[in-house]
Amino acid sequence: MAVFTPLADAQVASFLSRFDVGELVELKGVPAGTENSTFFVTTDRRELVLTLFEQGEHEELPFFVELLDFLDEHRIPVAGPVHDREGIALHELADRPALLFPRLPGTHPKAPNLEQCRALGDALGRLHRVSRHFPGQRPNPRDIHWLSAMYHKVLGYLSPEDQALMQDEVEGYQATLGESPELPQGALHGDLFRDNTLFDGDRLGGIIDFYNGCTGDLLFDLAIVINDWATDSNGRLDAARHDALLGAYLAQRPLNANERELWPLMLRLTALRYWLSRLLVVYVDPPAHDLTPHDPEQFRQILLARIQYGALPLPNPGDAE
Asked: What is the 3-state secondary structure (H, E, C) of 30-58?
């Protein structure tokens, strides 16, 4: 259950009085998520989502508010935070930072079809195109510097073969990226798995949960998406979903020559990023709440598949049509 701080109706009704959103009708805890307390809030005027932030760097929350406001202003399908009558979005409730959002339509796609992949690729391409002009800065907390600093912490829990695999991969990334020109930069979602989207049929209702948002290599964000959205149960890339998503993305933001060259490496790097982060949760830094960690083996298999089979050819822009 992802309600770590329970709320009473009276608390929420008082909180809502700061906003022009109507009177509280119903408050319902949301049994999903791993880090924050989330509630569905129904008023006599609209449907909302209330989030209490339980952990993480609270001083970074203004960055997320600014990013969501920026993307919302540029008509990217995100839930921009609701601002109160004084123009303030970030508040405190039950001694936790709190944000209120409009509730977007749809559900998480467990097995995305090609139309859903095209819709997500188009939206992510537009997001990355406009995010290059976002003025905020928050360095990517899970980039090659993090990998280099953290992978030593899990080596003792791995087989000799996996130790060598992880060490060789990190050293390869360091060597290649250290000599490469800077990739196109912008604001990233940072964790755009299927369960961070909402679809109403084939229509993208919205992209949610930007709390891994940061600024950095746009290619890093795209590789995370492909490794989740276009991977089959054996860790190999599914060509149809891969081409549908990337074709739509590239129609909005073509990759430059350096990005195309580094694409296979970035798929591997982001697979190792999740293998390592899940290993850290299992062995080194368990979650603050009683939750079941994600299985690290999934991304170990994805990494091995990317090494064995490489990347698929990048589609030409417009191939999603």
From this structure: CCCCCCCEEEEEEECCCEEEEEECCCCCH
Phi, psi of 187 (to 5 degrees): -80, 140
Q: What share of the chain is helix, strand, coil (3-state, %, to 5)?
A: 45, 15, 40
Using the structure block, give the residue that is written with the tokens 């001083």: 59
Q: Which residues contact 137 (CB under 8 A, 6 or more apart)?
A: 215
Where residue 1 falls among pLDDT bands split at 50, 70, 90?
very low
d(CA 276, CA 34): 18
Q: What is the pLDDT of residue 34?
A: 62
95: left (phi over 0), alpha (psi -120 to 50) or beta: left
Per-position b or e across 208-239, b if 16+ CB within 10 A of its CB: bbbbbbbbbbbbbbbbbbbbbbbbeeebbbbe
Residue with tokens 């129904």: 42
State the DSSP code for 156: G
Amino acid at 252: Q
Q: Please give the domain boundaries of the chain with CATH numbers for all domains.
A: 9-102 (3.30.200.20), 114-309 (3.90.1200.10)
Pairing type for strands 37-43 and 24-29 reads antiparallel
Residue 113 and residue 110: Cα distance in Å, rounded? 9
Q: 64: exposed, middle or buried (C-beta count within 10 Å: 0-12, 13-18, 19+)?
A: buried
Answer yes or no: pTM beyond 0.90: yes
Q: What per-residue confidence (pLDDT) applies to 210?
A: 93
Distance CA(98)–CA(286), nearest Å, equals 24
- At residue 33, the pLDDT reads 60
The 10s digit of each residue's pLDDT in 256-299 is 999 999 999 999 999 999 999 999 999 998 866 656 778 999 99
Question: 24, 13 in Cβ contact below 8 A?
Answer: yes
